[in-house]
Amino acid sequence: MLSRRMFALLGLAAAALWSAAARADEAPEELIMRISTEVLDAVKADKSIQAGDVQKVITLVDAKVMPSVDFRRMTASAVGRFWRQAAPEQQQRLQEEFKTLLIRTYSGALTQVKDQTVQLKPMRSKPEDEDVVVRTEVRGKGDPVQLDYRMEKASGGWKIYDVNVLGVWLVQNYRNSFAQEIGASGIDGLIAKLAEKNKAAAGRS
Q1: What is the chain's percent helix, strand, coil content, to nearest 5?
Q2: pTM for this structure?
Q3: In the chain, what are the domains?
């Protein structure tokens, strides 16, 4: 069974990977189902990813996933009340390091995909809503894994800004640890800590 961290990236990839030709008026739940299938099929068909080619996964995530995420909102939410205290240069560094952290930390998820499928759960939103939660389950061997997505309607279509894995929201999970680090060593201390983790991860890949 995949770990919580592995499923988090799988959820993020499945939610965010859409083609440039995707219709802006596509319902969020339809988008999730379509791109989930596209991502899972692509990974299952890629022998190098199945063999554990982490660099190829990183390239895939960076090129296909991250451009489709409202990453400024995600980073700001993870940093919480300290975001407004950060200078523009610090905000940019936080986004860059947080992006790298997510890519490297969760890239292993896609190498673990075997026979998983995604099933959509009933929507609880109204058609006119522009901020929704799309709920799904990843099914394969073992117990189903809950994956929910917070999405907002932007000018170019729906975008994801948070992921819930087994009842834990990704942004909230990081917010707690980020707050502790900022409290101990300030915003520059958090940036340095993230950079240190990213450098260590790069050395292992």
Answers
A1: 60, 15, 20
A2: 0.77
A3: 4-204 (3.10.450.710)
